[in-house]
């Protein structure tokens, strides 16, 4: 009986030890995977992450080069993070679902050349504008038939998916004449081949493309709209919005903004409020 009792005690001890080991593993896993992707999570540097999203397909504002995200939007985000004492973490998300991703807390903000408009204001809050531009018509350099905005009515028009430029195109031509693209640059490249007659995109994007591809395309008439681009945050993140606006004002005041803008566009694109 004594031998049997000792054997039972040994078995129970082994079972209990195994259970405790499994419980320990479960606690460790929960600790490592818990939490959200918000900026409240500390990074390896000890600073909280500042995650900001963009399409990654909008050169020169945000694009991938040598395996890394770069561009005007990326550098503005880094400058803001430095002012806020945070660790910059740019991420990509398809442009057409970028606001939904923000609402789902996949990232803290969107610094992805989002134009302020009434529909978006219903879903998110915007910072002060971080650049101003307009919706511009571009055609092939050799095209002499399209000289004004009115001339694009009924033409084959290309524009980026989910953008205000696509909405403008829908007012200018039939749906069958519209080609939507994941990237404005892809649309402009198609324009050079004649697949489309017109591309509507941000004025700065088109002008940069013209500079890099001389003799291929040209701008037509004045911009169709005047747009203000801003940083989007979730409606409930009022404290973060205040921090972003404060940091934005600081990089404008100390010349950091102008330095970044000069690098990418040769001038400041902040512009004046209309």
Describe the structure.
The protein has 274 residues and is of the alpha/beta class. It has two domains: 121 residues, Periplasmic binding protein-like II (D-Maltodextrin-Binding Protein, domain 2); 95 residues, 3-Layer(aba) Sandwich (D-Maltodextrin-Binding Protein, domain 2), CATH 3.40.190.10. Strands 1, 5, 6, 7, 8, 9, 10, 11 and 12 form a nine-stranded mixed β-sheet that branches. The chain has a three-stranded antiparallel β-sheet with strand order 2-3-4. Strand 3 and strand 4 form a beta hairpin. Helix 2 packs across helix 8 and helix 2 runs antiparallel to helix 9. The longest helix has 32 residues. The chain is globular, with a radius of gyration of 26 Å. The N terminus is likely disordered.
Key terms:
274 residues; alpha/beta; D-Maltodextrin-Binding Protein, domain 2; 2 domains; nine-stranded mixed beta sheet; three-stranded antiparallel beta sheet; disordered N terminus
Stretches where pLDDT falls below 50 for ≥5 residues?
A: 1-40
What fraction strand?
25-35%
- Report the sheet with the most strands, covering strand number, pairing sense and barrel closure: 9 strands, mixed
Name given to the CATH homologous superfamily of the largest domain = Periplasmic binding protein-like II
- How many DSSP-defined strands? 12
CATH class call of the largest domain: Alpha Beta
What is the averaged pLDDT score?
86
Q: Which geometry do the CA atoms define?
A: globular
Give the H and E element order: HEEEEHEHEHEEEHEHEHEHH
What is the count of helical runs? 9
Helix content: 40-55%
């Amino acid at each position: 009986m004594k031998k049997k009792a000792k054997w039972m005690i040994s078995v129970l001890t082994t079972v209990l030890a195994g259970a405790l080991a499994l419980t320990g593993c479960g606690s460790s896993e929960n600790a490592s995977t818990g939490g959200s992707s918000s900026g409240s999570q500390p990074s390896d540097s000890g600073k909280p992450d500042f995650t900001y999203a963009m399409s990654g397909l909008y050169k020169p504002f945000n694009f991938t080069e040598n395996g890394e995200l770069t561009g005007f939007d990326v550098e503005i985000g880094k400058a803001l993070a430095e002012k806020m004492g945070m660790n910059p973490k740019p991420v990509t998300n398809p442009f057409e679902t970028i606001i939904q991703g923000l609402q789902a807390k996949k990232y803290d903000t969107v610094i992805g050349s989002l134009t302020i408009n009434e529909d978006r204001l219903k879903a998110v809050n915007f910072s002060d504008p971080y650049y101003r531009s307009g919706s511009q018509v571009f055609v092939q350099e050799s095209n002499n038939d399209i000289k004004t905005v009115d001339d694009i009515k009924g033409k084959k028009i290309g524009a980026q998916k989910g953008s205000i430029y696509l909405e403008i195109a829908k007012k200018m031509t039939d749906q069958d004449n519209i080609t939507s693209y994941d990237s404005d640059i892809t649309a402009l490249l198609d324009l050079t081949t004649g697949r489309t007659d017109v591309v509507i995109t941000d004025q700065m994007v088109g002008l940069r493309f013209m500079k890099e591809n001389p003799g291929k395309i040209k701008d037509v008439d004045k911009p169709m709209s005047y747009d203000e681009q801003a940083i989007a945050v979730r409606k409930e993140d009022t404290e973060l919005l205040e921090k972003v606006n404060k940091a934005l004002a600081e990089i404008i005041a100390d010349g950091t903004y102008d330095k970044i803008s000069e690098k990418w566009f040769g001038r400041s694109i902040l512009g004046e409020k209309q």
